[in-house]
Amino acid sequence: MHRALRLQEILDCVVPHLANSDVAVLARVASIFFQPCITRLYGDCNQATLKKVFRIMYPDEGYHLRYDTSAQMSARLRLYCSCVRKVYDITIEKRATMALPLSSDCMETSMLHDLGLWIQKDAGLTCVFPRLHTLHLALADDSSLPLAQVLLSPVLYQLVLFFRKTEHALGHIGPFCNSLVRTSPNLGKVMVFGRVFKHGVDYNRLFDGLKYLRDLHHLDIPADGCGLVSYLDDNNSLDALGLMLRPESSLPPLTLFRGLRQLRLRGSLERICAVVEAAEFDNLTVFMLSVEDPTHVELMRRINTALVRKVPRLTDYTFSLVGNRETRATTDVPAVEDFSSLCQLERLETLDVYLRPYGWQIDNSPGKHDSILRSFSRISTLRTLNWYWRLKPQALASPGVLVDLARNCPALEAVWLPVDLRMPPSAEGLPSQHVLRSLLLNGASVVDQARLVEAELFLLSLFPNACMDDFKALCRPIDNVFLALGLQLPV
Q: 490: Cβ–Cβ under 8 A, 6 or more apart, which residues?
């Protein structure tokens, strides 16, 4: 073995560039490779990966339910758990039947109970994952929160909780949040979601538990924020906030928004419009808006106009229209003109507008999308432009939009646009040497292979740094309305 491979620093640089299958083989070659390899394999864990770690506790699950209590098991489990930095998409649920802990499609509460017993037995342990930085949990209700405390770590920075059921009140979330100041005092980002909040919750329990987290600066909750005033009196470091504003919600205190750098509003357009028009935003740079089945879509123009007037230095704007399939067909959607005022944001770097899920009304406005996209192409600071609209062929933007973006937006890195490539222009004299690496075009139909080659040459001339090896034409019917070309340029 070369002497260079005996240096931990070199191994830490080499291992991240290997495929997972190669890393798994390398971990078995020599003991010096083992630690950096398992750190790579188990640093970011989803539910499947985490079960591989916990299989150490249940080596022969087919014969017994209880976990292995040997010292050897404890040492191995501690070694693997110390590698975990991020845990995503973990579902915690209590099953009515006596199932084996690793046979379920979720994390059983019995497994959390066994982990708690393991920590109590080992005097050197205070938590399961001592280096855990990010934790995303999905729970049926909050009854599992006391057991989930074993997953918290002293260095935890981001915590995301999602509650799936609606028939339970949140009686455990208060004590759980109170425990965070002891288990995870450095917590900086807390996000809480779930349909359960639509039935009314005493949010003071949540706020009281969070107010002692001095480093908390990002809070996203399904509440209107009215109970946050007393919380902010004790915690002035909050610079990112997410709120749910329902039609029956009262207007949150306007002092909440003055010092924010990032704001995400969900719910009623009527309530959101009232907040945007009344509040002052001294430091806001990121604005995100999410609406389900809007009943006042005409307010979108007022919201965007007020936002441009009050926050001309905005760098990131995101709008998403979501909802269920039953109501999409009968729900109005904002007009493309409602977003025209955003062209005045001279510092805009990210523009993401999502109105394209199946079931929404199809836009048939010829020329309007082409015009507004050309206006956005004049923003030289633009880095990401995503325009998710469901359009008929006559409403698609022309290829000239891509030419304008290549000429005027030198920093552009990612694009998703509804562009018509049925008649691509000549590639001669077009700008080149652009840094764009990710491109997705939807809504364009190609009728023959010759036109497909022309489209490929046209795009290559504009964005030569984009990989075209996997260029594919996917001519497929969408709702029997139009044909679409899906073009994906991988990073």
A: 438, 467, 470
